[in-house]
Amino acid sequence: MNLGLIGLPQVGKKTVFRLLTGLVAEKAPSKDGISYGIATVRDPRIDALSAMFSPKKTKYAEIEIALPPDIQPDNARGAAWLDPIRRTDAIIHVVRAFASDHVFHILNDVNPARDIETVELEFLFADLDMTERRLERINKELRIKASPQKEKEKEVITRCHDQLQAEKPLRNVEFSEEDMKLIRSLQFLTLKPMITVINVGEDIAAAQKEHAALAAELSARGDTVVFLSAAIEQELSELDSAERQAFMDDLGITEPASHRLSRSAFECLGLISFFTCGPDEVRAWPVTAGSTAPQAAGKIHSDLERGFIRAETISYDALIAAGSEKAAKEAKLHKLNGKDYVVQDGDVIEIRFNV
Ligand code: GDP
């Protein structure tokens, strides 16, 4: 699963890529002009569990970030340059809201609402074009041979087409699971979960106020909004931990915004974490929300899924409240769950299995 980090030129994408992955975009592994990096999902629960278990190793969940070339407004609509974005599972759109005389803006002035609309329209037109080509093809096929399946597909894609024509992104349309099966392979851009990163100047509180209406509008339509100053975050990332804490105290924040962004990115992929804890390792494992205990066990090792007997489970909150694993065991807070158990975000799990 990966997220595409997109936006107009010079908005802070490469800076955000570096904050998330620790990699300089130009030096990161790349293919077909797209840079790739792995982002650590910063989860304070893992820090707390690590403090409790003092393990030899601590491992956070990870997600892949793809950085395609800049979006250029008024490129040929629906052309191949959007293909790398189609292949991603979700989108992080970086938008410039910082003022600077040294950084040019491709549309001349700083206007995040306009930039969001510009990119959204590119996506809408590309998707619209896709529906038109697809409908043309289905109609041709239906003229040759009747097919209830194709009729159903035609109905769903016509619905997509009408929504797009009304300038409504497909992620705001309710689709049944059956509909989704018919359209998933078309990789619609406007269907992907969207995180908008508003890259603000040094005065974050003032910027949040200034762009509050825009943020509210985006949130109301189901998108995630993260305010972040890439310049400040970059400075924070270069400090040692004592200096970083002092700077964060000055800023009145408890963690870097890029850490929150990593969690938003994880969540918008529909993932949750369960944890395994012991003296060797404390580790977060990503699973799709709704996964059963054996499926979660299979993430650790296929043998654990095959030989699954039970999952001994305690919620993160209950374990932290108990103070230690020993105290939680004495208070009999762990539950033995069978193969139908649906794993919850924050479950601390030990798998019992047959070899
Ligand atoms: P990209 O072209 O979207 O990948 O943007 P970059 O991350 O390369 O940033 C473009 C320029 O804007 C660089 O000179 C950055 O130093 C600068 N920049 C990025 N974020 C900020 C910010 O939050 N504040 C200021 N003042 N400059 C920034």
From TrEMBL:
GO CC annotation: cytoplasm
CDD domains linked to this entry: TGS_YchF_OLA1
A Pfam family the protein falls into: YchF-GTPase_C
Cofactor (UniProt): Mg(2+)
Molecular functions (GO terms): ATP binding; ATP hydrolysis activity; GTP binding; metal ion binding
Keyword entries, A-Z: ATP-binding, Metal-binding, Nucleotide-binding
PROSITE patterns registered for this protein in UniProt: TGS
Domain TGS: 270-353
SUPFAM superfamilies reported for this sequence: P-loop containing nucleoside triphosphate hydrolases (SSF52540), TGS-like (SSF81271)
Name of the protein described by the UniProt record: GTP-binding protein YchF
Organism: Oligosphaera ethanolica
